[in-house]
């Protein structure tokens, strides 16, 4: 998927977290430089992204066009609802169910899972088609907006960001918006990919998550804890959760990442479709942060 972006090859590079100019370009991927901030350690793509980036990344094609998105997002409805239920049970160990905001809610399947474990709340989703489906078919309150422009008079006990944080086109602004909408003592639950994982270290520059310009930021549990501290949040817990995937989705991801046409044909022929399997996700983690009172 190609997002609308401009690589800032001439302008001074500033860290999107701490705004330091002490930046090291590590390597180039998809004609974008992957950089590290020497001041705070944040890892990011040297891309000047704006609202058009979010619209491109989360266009209708992402949910139905395959490639690095979904061949049919709705095939994973039940899997995503169960994943939401699983995360609801995780959070319920640390707090009583309350009022939540699900960021990047899509059609609301994860949010529905949280509702099934006692939570109430709303979602925010930049794709209009997905937001409308959540409103009309799932009977959920899904607000059609990028998170950076989200506004509400309400504050939330819990904000969830499940595999969406690396796509924020303005990381600092997006997190500040969410911090402003989180109650003192409220929580953030974030699931994202671990740049310090064994998988990332073995595959190095070929790691599947190094895929700018759709992915703009890369974290580890430690770096995300540091980002949370800058926003006024303290570390509570972290862990890994088994992820399940529909094989039809897995086949499109494999075909998109594999270069060999022969291997692509083998995948298409030998891997059955529409079956639920565990997804190899050693490099995926969740972290729970609490807003300082």
Q: What does this protein structure show overall?
A:
With 293 residues, the protein is α/β, with parallel strands linked by helices. It is 31% helix and 27% strand. It has 10 helices and 15 strands. It has a 7-stranded mixed sheet, with helices on both faces. The protein is globular and about 45 Å long. The model is unreliable at 1-6 (pLDDT under 50).
Feature tags:
globular; 293 residues; 4-stranded antiparallel sheet; alpha/beta; disordered N terminus; 10 helices; 7-stranded mixed sheet; single chain
Brief summary:
31% of the residues lie in helices and 27% in strands.
- N-to-C CA distance: 41 Å
So what's the oligomer here?
A: single chain
How much helical structure, as a percent, in the residues?
A: 25-40%
Question: Class by helix and strand content?
Answer: alpha/beta
Q: Which value, in Å, is the CA radius of gyration?
A: 18 Å
SSE order = EEEEEHHHEHEHEEHEHEHEEHHEE
Strand content is: 25-35%
| Coarse morphology | globular
Lay out the secondary structure.
Elements: E1 6-7, E2 23-29, E3 32-37, E4 43-45, E5 47-48, H1 51-57, H2 60-64, H3 77-91, E6 99-103, H4 109-115, E7 120-125, H5 128-136, E8 142-144, E9 156-162, H6 171-180, E10 182-193, H7 198-203, E11 217-218, H8 221-230, E12 233-239, E13 243-246, H9 247-257, H10 261-270, E14 276-279, E15 284-291
Parallel strand pairs: 6-7, 6-9, 7-8, 9-10
Antiparallel strand pairs: 1-5, 2-3, 3-4, 4-11, 10-15, 12-15, 13-14
Helix pairs in contact: 3-4
């Amino acid at each position: 998927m190609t997002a609308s972006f401009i690589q800032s090859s001439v302008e001074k590079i500033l860290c999107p977290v701490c705004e330091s100019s002490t930046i090291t370009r590590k390597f180039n991927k998809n004609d974008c430089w992957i950089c590290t901030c020497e001041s705070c350690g944040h890892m990011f793509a040297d891309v000047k992204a704006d609202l058009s980036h979010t619209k491109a990344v989360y266009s209708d094609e992402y949910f139905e066009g395959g490639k690095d998105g979904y061949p049919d997002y709705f095939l994973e409805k039940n899997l995503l609802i169960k994943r939401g239920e699983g995360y609801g049970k995780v959070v319920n160990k640390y707090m009583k169910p309350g009022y939540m905001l699900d960021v990047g809610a899509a059609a609301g399947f994860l949010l529905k899972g949280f509702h099934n474990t006692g939570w109430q709340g709303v979602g925010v989703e930049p794709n209009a088609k997905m937001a409308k489906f959540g409103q009309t078919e799932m009977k959920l309150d899904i607000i059609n907006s990028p998170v950076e422009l989200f506004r509400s008079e309400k504050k939330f006990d819990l904000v969830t960001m499940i595999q969406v944080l690396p796509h924020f086109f303005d990381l600092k602004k997006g997190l500040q918006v969410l911090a402003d909408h989180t109650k003192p003592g409220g929580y953030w639950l974030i699931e994202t990919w671990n740049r310090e994982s064994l998988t990332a270290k073995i595959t190095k520059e070929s790691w599947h998550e190094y895929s700018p310009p759709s992915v703009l930021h890369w974290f580890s549990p430690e770096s995300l804890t540091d980002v949370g501290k800058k926003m006024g949040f303290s570390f509570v817990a972290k862990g890994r959760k088994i992820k399940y995937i529909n094989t039809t989705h897995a086949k499109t991801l494999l075909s998109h990442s594999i270069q060999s046409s022969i291997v692509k044909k083998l995948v298409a022929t030998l891997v059955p479709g529409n079956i639920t399997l565990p997804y190899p996700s050693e490099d995926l983690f969740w972290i729970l942060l609490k807003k300082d009172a």
